[in-house]
Amino acid sequence: MEVEDLDMLNEYIDKTNFKRTCLYLTSSARYLPEPNDMKVLDLAYSIYLKFEEYPNALRIALFMDKLQYAKKVFTSCNDVHQKKQFCYIIARHGIAFVLDIEMAGNEDGREMLQDILYNSKLSEGYLALARDLEVMEAKSPMDIYKV
After folding, report:
1. For 26-69, what is the HEC assignment?
2. Per residue in 108-139, pLDDT tens?
3. Nearest CA to 42 among 66, 74, 18?
C-alpha cells in the first residue's frame, strides 16, 4: 500500500497467509481515501474468491454494494448449504436480490433460495430451530438447573 502497487500482492499470497492479508486489507480500507478503499476491498474480494472463502467474499461484496460481485459468489459456490446461508445474509441486509437458475443450480433450488431471500419462511425456520433446541415450552428454574 505504501508504494501503491497492490497488484503484485497476488503473486505472494498463498493458502497460509491469505486470511491475515485480507484481514489487514479490509481493516485498513476504513482509513483510506475514497478511490483507494474500494481498490483495496476489491483486491480482498478477489483473494477470498481465489481461495474459496465465499462468505467473506459475499460480506465484502455487500459492503461495497456491488450486486454483480454477490452474483459471482453464488455462481462460484457449489454447496447448497452455503448458498442458503448467503440468502439469509442478503435477506438480513434487506437487499432486493433475484436469483436465476445459473446461480441456484436448478428450478427447485432457486425457489427454495428465493423463499429464504424473501423471508417468507423465516418464522418456520425459527420454530424448527426451537424444536431442535427443545425450547418450545417455558421451563422452570428447577428444570434448567436440575438440582
Report:
1. HHHHHHCCHHHHHHHHHHHHHHHHHCCCHHHHHHHHHHHCCHHH
2. 788 888 888 888 888 888 888 888 988 888 77
3. 66
Q: Rounded to whole angstroms, how far apart are CA atoms 108 and 59?
A: 26
Question: Is residue 61 a contact partner of residue 69, using CB atoms and an 8 Å limit?
Answer: yes
Please tell me the distance from the alpha carbon of residue 30 to that of residue 19, in angstroms, as a whole number.
Answer: 18
**Residue 98 C-alpha from the chain's centroid:** 16
Amino acid at 95: I
d(CA 76, CA 29): 25
pTM recorded for the entire structure: 0.80
Contact 86, 58 (CB under 8 A): yes
pLDDT in tens, 23-76: 999 999 999 888 889 999 999 999 999 999 999 999 999 999 999 999 999 889
